[in-house]
Amino acid sequence: MPDPSTPPESAGGRDTGSSRLDARERVLELLYEADLKDRAVGEIVAELPVVPDAFTVELLALTETHRDEIDADLTRVARGWTLERMPIVDRAILRVGVAELRWKREIPTAVVINEAVELAKRFSTDASSRYVNGVLSRLAGDHRGEPAC
After folding, report:
1. Is the dihedral of CA 119, 48, 103, 86 positive or negative?
2. CA dist 65 to 13, 44, 59, 68, 147, Å?
3. Cα–Cα distance, 141 to 98 (Å, whole number)
4. By C-alpha distance, which of 98, 99, 29 is closest to 61?
5. Which letter does DSSP use for residue 79 in this model?
6. HSE of 142 in the Cβ direction (CA atoms, 13 Å)?
7. Which residues of 28-54 are buried (b: 16+ CB within 10 A; e: fewer)?
8. 19-144: which CATH architecture?
9. Which distant-in-sequence residues (6+ apart) come within 8 Å of 18 by Cβ?
10. 1-32 pLDDT, tens digit each
11. Residue-range domain boundaries for the chain
């Protein structure tokens, strides 16, 4: 697992090829900042000079509104890691992934998991990307009745 004090880097001007992946990356950044500063994500968003795009706002709202349910899912399946021990980046990626699996059913399971794994590869470690894949795959089976990948 990576050092939780290391912030995720922004994609900068790089074209990721997916506006939804960009939105997920922005959600990750905002959740990371809120967690690191021990503040509500809504406070962080309210201070932004530009309101994030609609998909970003929707994912943030889902993640924050259902945080207790999401954390209960993660606690149940995250073998070997308590939420408190997880690196902030990994915890944020998993929270967004669970929110999408449970409340954004129109997004294919494989897309949710693949994009979460991509974020973990980009902002965390290879071990984290495998862990994210395993946790979300298990929860996909629980919540969508299907294996992910």
Report:
1. positive
2. 31, 16, 10, 8, 26
3. 12
4. 99
5. T
6. 15
7. bbbbbbbbeeeeebeebbeeeeeebee
8. Orthogonal Bundle (1.10)
9. 115
10. 334 334 344 333 333 336 899 999 999 999 99
11. 19-144
